[in-house]
Design brief:
Elements (H helix, E strand, L loop, with lengths): L25 H8 L19 H12 L2 E4 L5 H7 L4 E4 L2
Parallel strand pairs: 1-2
C-alpha cells in the first residue's frame, strides 16, 4: 500500500512538518516526544508497511542525534560499539 494516491517520483523527506499525526499513530508519536525520559532504554515501533515508522524514527534520530543502521547490516562489533549512544535500527 502506497502513501501516495498518484504514482509520482517524489523524494522521501522525513521532516517534522511532513508527518501527519492521526489516531493510529498518535501513541507512537507521543512516545517519541517523551524521549529521553523513557521508562526503558529502547522503543520498538511496529506497524504496517508505509505507516510512518521510518518517518517517526528519523524525526527522533535528528532530535536525539542518533546514528542510523540497517538491522541486516548489524554485526556483533556494531552492537558492542553502540555503548551509550542512541541508534535508530531500521527494518529490525
Amino acid at each position: 500500500m502506497s502513501q501516495y494516491a498518484l504514482s509520482l517520483p517524489l523524494p522521501v523527506i522525513f521532516a517534522d512538518g511532513n508527518y501527519h499525526v492521526s489516531a493510529p499513530n498518535k501513541d507512537a508519536q507521543q512516545w517519541l516526544e517523551t524521549w529521553p525520559n523513557w521508562p526503558a532504554h529502547a522503543l520498538y515501533l511496529q506497524g504496517a508497511a508505509a505507516s510512518g515508522k521510518s518517518h517517526l524514527g528519523h524525526i527522533w534520530m535528528r532530535k536525539s542525534k542518533a546514528k542510523l543502521v540497517e538491522a541486516a547490516s548489524l554485526t556483533k562489533g556494531d552492537v558492542a560499539a553502540m555503548g551509550n549512544h542512541s541508534w535508530l535500527v531500521e527494518n529490525l
